[in-house]
Amino acid sequence: MSERKKLVAGNWKMNGSLAANQALVQALRQGVGQPACDVAVCPPSVYLGQLQQLLAGQTAIALGAQDLSQHEGGAFTGDVSATMLKDFGVRYAIVGHSERRQHQGETDLQVALKVRRALAAGITPIVCVGETLREREEGLTEFIVKRQLSAVLHLNGHAINETVVAYEPVWAIGTGQTATPAQAQSVHAVLRAQLRAAGAQAEHVRILYGGSMNAGNAAELLAQPDIDGGLIGGAALKAPDFLTIVAAAA
Ligand code: 13P
User: Fold this and answer.
1) 10 lines ligand 1 (CB under 6 A)
2) How buried is residue 14: exposed, middle or buried, by Cβ count under 10 Å (0-12/13-18/19+)?
3) Is 131 a catalytic residue?
C-alpha cells in the first residue's frame, strides 16, 4: 500500500464562465462527499476570486492556479504573483504545463524559478513534465522528462519534497490517446528513481498522470504503483466524470 495520499486535480485550462463555474462547483460540492484522496480545481486566474467564494465552508475541494509568475512583483504586465494567489486561498499551482512551454516558450529554468516562487509562498507546485510524440518515437522520453525535472531539482534541492510532479505526455493531452497504464507506470518509476537519486524523499512525492485520463480509464491508471493521482483536462469540466475519477482514486 502506498503511503502517498492520491491527488486528483482538474485543470480547467481556458474554459469556463461565471455561470458555468457556479454550476460545475455546485455539482462537485454536492457529489464529492468525504473523498479519500485530495481534490483540487484549477480555474483560469480571473475566476480565482469567484472560486474561492464558491468553495468556502468546505475542505474536500482545494483551489489551484494554472500558472504563476517567476517574479515577486512589480513591472510584469499581465502576470500574477504567488503572493496574490495565496491571497485568494490558492493551495496548488500547476507549473510548466506543456501548453505553456509550447505556446509561451517557457524554459526549464523559468519553470524551476516558478516552482521556487510557489514554494516560498506556501503553495504546492504541480510540476509538469512530458515528451512530444516525436521525442517518444526517437526514444528520447526518459531523457526529456529527466531533463525537465532535473532543472527543478537543481534549483530547489530538498524543497522538492513539497512539490507534486505530473507526467503528461504531450501526445496524450486532449487527443483521447491515453498512455497505457504500463507506459505511464514505466515513466513514473523513472521519475521516482530520479527523485531518489537526488536525495529527495521519493516515497513521499506524489507523481500524477495527465493526458486523456477519463472516467473510463482512470481506475486502471490509478492502480499502478507509482501513479499517485491525476491531472485532468477535458473530463474535469463534466462533474460526473470528474467525480468518477475522484472515486477511482479512493
Ligand atoms: P486532457 O485530460 O484534456 O487530455 O488534458 C490533460 C492536461 O493537460 C491536464 O493538465
Assistant:
1) no
2) exposed
3) no
Q: How far apart are CA 34 and CA 23, in angstroms?
A: 20
Give the 3-state secondary structure of residue 229: strand
What would the pLDDT profile of 133-153 be if each residue is shown by its tens digit?
999 999 999 999 999 999 999
Residues 8-35 have a mean pLDDT of 98
Our answer on whether the CB atom of 163 is closer than 6 Å to any ligand 1 atom is no
Give the residue, by CA position, lying nearest to ligand 1 atom 7: 233
CB of 168 closer than 6 angstroms to any ligand 1 atom: yes
Domains by residue range for the chain, with CATH? 7-249 (3.20.20.70)
**Ligand 1 contact, 173 CB (< 6 A):** yes
Mutational pocket test of ligand 1: of 173, 217, 245, the residue with most ligand atoms within 8 Å of the beta carbon: 173
- Burial of 117-155, coded b for 16+ CB within 10 Å and e otherwise, reads bbbebebbbbbbbbbbeebbeeeebeebbbebbebbbeb
Q: Which residue has the cell 512539490?
A: 163
* Known active-site residue 168: yes
What residue owns the CA closest to ligand 1's atom 9?
Answer: 233
pTM of the full structure: 0.97
The Cα–Cα gap between 61 and 29 comes to 8
For 125, list phi and psi in degrees, rounded to 5.
Answer: -75, 140
pLDDT of residue 1: 45
